[in-house]
Design goal:
Number of strands: 14
Helix content: 55-70%
Radius of gyration: 30 Å
Structural class: alpha/beta
Largest sheet: 5 strands, parallel
Strand content: 5-15%
Bound molecules: arginine
């Protein structure tokens, strides 16, 4: 039982004994006592004041007195109005610490056969261009959320939907056919996803030039000129031929997508994310089409004169939604219907979570309604984990085209920057080139990940590379650095042959108690992060923990402590702090270095 539970149960017993009130211990939630008062945990006594027919202060005093007499974990108390501040018996904290040390997978709830199955979709790129900064936030959130939900005792299936077909990839294919000169990743030395992205940009360049030329020649507005573009007509024709299974188009498509996948794999690997099951739009969109046509037959959808198929959502307060184009080709929404159907067929999903940016809020609102209308009972319960945009301060790390920030470039810059900072700080002496590279990778990626994950996922944010790599403050490197420092203390302790002995009778000081209390908060923080889908809670917890540790480390010696039980307590604190820091960072997908 945690100390919070012991106090809650004690208080429940006290109000029963004192006032005959049946209080549910689960509803009594002790809070950490505020700094200005003496105490570790505070209980609010207002709920019992009326039944006790006494002033709040008196009720607090009676409950406090009862606890001191009956609950061995309680040493003293004081009351401030309706707040009962409880001082836990100092040596009791040693038991709390020993309990933490003895708990395998501390912070995690075990997954069993009966655990609910959560499917988390994240990443979900189109195959016409490389991943960018927005994808980075997406991937990190999705991966971290998956690990947190797993730690909360869920079976988690990490999934990805690769939007590998559609007009966008046809544009890249067409540009490659027209102007590619047979270029391949091998012949150009370019990463495959970048190569395809360059052709997508090239298509757009030619398309815009064509539209401008038509508009000027015919003296018509741009929107009119767009309709007359031969390039766009060719791309659409290619899409039709793709859907018809034209072998030449399919062959080119497969070849170009395989280049993209090799590129994505490299990016995912460096980001440290992976998937248990990948779906491809090319394998799900027909299911979607079928469902839409089925819905059409049942009168749930309607067909316009031009042959296109739509859903009327005006009764739900939305508008009309296109599901199949006039030429019969499928749209983005259609494949999501098919993908969802297949996922629920493949897995006994209890909860489906889509990690997708907030610019698609409307899309998911519609998807949920459509699935429900099509008769899927789970349609209504889909969760759209909608996160905010991320931007860079003006002038920092602009990509080739100056529009989006490329994920590969960003990671490379972060690692280079980490290496520079470490060099300047002279932290790398006596390490081999390989070790230096490894540490730069861990720190650069840690800085990036931590910075993106420490903020509320729902909010838009500004990513500042320089600030993220600071070795002080609320950053990944600061936490990593503290971890490495603790590990170094533990290595030295081992060299000196210090073993951990009995520390149960040591009276811990305030800093030690505060640290134990923070360590004890880890499991409930993980639960809270899972409940609220917030990796940010874990990030900020890790920061609080290392701050707490640093205060203790600053004030007390560890290796120089001569009293053996006290030294054992402190070494245990080092050991458990490093363990919990590592576990918390792992929930964020961040590695911690043994040296730094
Ligand atoms: N590929 C889409 C895009 O790049 C995002 C897909 C999100 N997931 C989904 N199930 N619709 O905009």
């Amino acid at each position: 039982m945690s100390i919070d539970q012991i106090i809650a149960e004690g208080v429940a017993k006290a109000v029963k004994a004192l006032y005959g009130i049946d209080a549910d211990a689960a509803s009594i939630v002790p809070q950490a006592t505020r700094k200005e008062f003496e105490g570790n945990l505070t209980v609010v006594v207002f709920p019992w004041v009326k039944a006790a027919r006494k002033a709040p202060e008196a009720v607090g005093a009676e409950i406090g007195q009862w606890l001191v007499e009956n609950e061995p974990a309680v040493a003293r108390f004081n009351t401030v109005k309706g707040f009962l501040n409880i001082v836990v018996e100092p040596t009791y904290w040693n038991k709390v610490l020993a309990h933490i040390a003895g708990t395998p997978d501390y912070g995690s709830v075990p997954v069993t056969d009966n655990s609910p199955l959560v499917m988390v979709e994240y990443s979900s790129p189109n195959t016409n261009k490389p991943l960018h900064l927005g994808h980075v936030r997406n991937n990190l959130l999705g991966y971290s959320l998956s690990r947190i939900l797993e730690a909360c005792g869920n079976k988690v299936v990490k999934t990805n939907i690769v939007n590998d077909r559609g007009i966008h990839i046809c544009k890249s294919m067409l540009a490659w056919q027209k102007w590619g000169d047979g270029a391949t990743p091998e012949s150009t030395g370019k990463k495959g996803d970048h190569l395809i992205g360059d052709f997508y940009v090239l298509f757009d360049k030619h398309y815009r030039a064509e539209v401008k030329e038509i508009a000027e020649r015919e003296n018509i507005p741009a929107e009119e000129a767009e309709k007359r573009s031969t390039l766009m007509a060719e791309a659409r024709d290619m899409l039709r031929r793709w859907e018809a299974g034209d072998p030449e188009i399919r062959g080119l498509w497969e070849r170009m997508n395989s280049w993209v996948y090799a590129g994505f794999d490299q990016t995912y690997k460096r980001l440290g994310v992976d998937f248990d099951k990948i779906y491809y739009e090319s394998q799900t969109y027909l299911e979607g089409k079928e469902k839409v046509l089925e819905g059409l037959e049942k009168g749930l959808m309607y067909r316009k004169e031009d042959g296109s198929v739509w859903a009327d959502l005006t009764n739900e307060g939305l508008d009309h939604k296109l599901l199949l184009r006039a030429d019969g080709t499928s749209v983005y929404m259609t494949q999501d219907i098919g993908t969802a159907k297949l996922r629920f067929r493949d897995y006994p999903i209890d909860r489906m979570i889509y990690v997708v940016g907030n610019e698609q809020n409307y899309h998911f609102q519609v998807l949920s309604l459509l699935l429900d209308r099509l008769g899927f009972k789970w349609g209504k319960d889909l969760v759209h984990f909608s996160y905010g945009m991320v931007e860079l301060p003006e002038g920092k790390m602009k990509s080739r085209e100056g529009t989006v920030v490329d994920a590969d470039d960003l990671m490379e810059e972060m690692v280079t920057e980490a290496r520079e900072v470490s060099r300047e700080m002279d932290k790398l002496q006596g390490l081999s080139e390989e070790e230096v590279a490894e540490i730069a990778e861990t720190v650069g990626m840690g800085a990036l990940k931590y910075f993106l994950l420490k903020v509320d996922p729902r909010k838009n944010m500004l990513f500042n590379p320089k600030e993220s790599i600071d070795f002080n403050g609320n950053t990944g490197p600061f936490i990593q650095y503290t971890y490495a420092r603790i590990r170094s203390v533990l290595r030295k302790a081992a060299e000196k042959g210090f073993a951990i002995g009995d520390y149960s009778s040591v009276v811990p000081n305030d800093k030690e108690i505060a640290l134990i209390q923070t360590l004890a908060d880890f499991p409930s923080t993980v639960q809270e992060a899972g409940r609220t889908f917030s990796p940010a809670l874990i990030a900020n917890y890790a920061y609080d923990l290392v701050k707490q540790f640093n205060q203790f480390y600053h004030d007390y010696t560890i290796l120089g402590e001569e009293d053996e039980p006290t030294r054992s307590l402190r070494l245990t604190l080092c050991d458990q702090t490093s363990r919990v820091v590592k576990a918390a960072m792992a929930l964020l997908g961040i590695r911690v270095p043994e040296r730094m």
